[in-house]
Amino acid sequence: MLIIGIAGGTGSGKTTVVKKIIERCPKDEVVVLPQDSYYRDNSNIPIEERLKINFDHPNAVEFDLLIEHLKHLKKGETVNIPIYSYLTCTRSTETIPVQSKKVVIVEGILIFTNPELRNIFDIKVFVDADADDRLIRVIKRDIIERGRSIDKVLERYIKTVKPSHIQFIEPTKTFADLIVPQGGDNLVAIDILTHYIEKKLIKISNYA
Fold first, then answer.
1. Highest mean pLDDT among 48-57, 98-107, 145-154, 186-195
2. 57: phi > 0 → left, psi -120 to 50 → alpha, else beta; which?
3. Most CB atoms closer than 10 Å: which of 70, 161, 164, 190?
4. Closest CA to 25 of 206, 207, 190
5. Is the dihedral of CA 51, 115, 124, 102 positive or negative?
6. What class, spelled out in words, does domain 2-199 have in CATH?
């Protein structure tokens, strides 16, 4: 099994990079574990308090569960990943079953902040993007997908997203084996990463 960690700031283009990798890899060989699925359930606190949660802080993520799931996948076992809602800041009672595959991609802004999780990755990729480009993507995403107003998006960006990026996310770039500037638009970097995956898949098949 090949486990790939893809990190980067909010709105850096990580999801686009993941999609392009999947498109170029053999069908049914890749599974993705989004860090967003592992945000802690906050159903035990009032909705007003939930809206104040800093999702760009490592404490917001249940890393222990994510690590546990990766260990099960390495054993060839199926895991049930949580379904998280940004609208309610809670987990659904339902889960998504995920089968073990030859390639597992873990994608999220904070995944390189946890030393134990970092050590599990066979390759660490940091998707880099200009701060203005990231902000534009965040505004579009949060308004469309998360029902936030432009004022709320900008307020959150100034209070939590930008400071947390500087404190927690940007420093983890030093852990990356490969840095991808311009996100999904960097076809050269995606080609390099895809070729690396293909070579690893051949080795995995030969040992199978």
1. 98-107
2. beta
3. 161
4. 190
5. negative
6. alpha beta
CA atoms within 13 A on the CB side of 136: 6
Tokens in use for 80?
């049930």
Helices (H) and strands (E) counted in the chain, each on its own, are 8, 7
Single-letter code of the amino acid located at 35: Q
Q: How many residues does the chain have?
A: 208
pTM over 0.90: no
- Whole-angstrom distance, CA of residue 56 vs CA of residue 170: 12
- Residue 144 — pLDDT band, cuts 50, 70, 90? low
Asked if 81 and 7 touch (Cβ cutoff 8 Å), the reply is no
Indicate the domain borders of the chain: 2-199
Are the beta carbons of 108 and 34 closer than 8 angstroms?
yes
pLDDT-based confidence at residue 174 (cuts at 50, 70, 90): very high
- For Cα atoms 148, 152, 155, give the angle at the middle one, nearest 5 degrees: 150
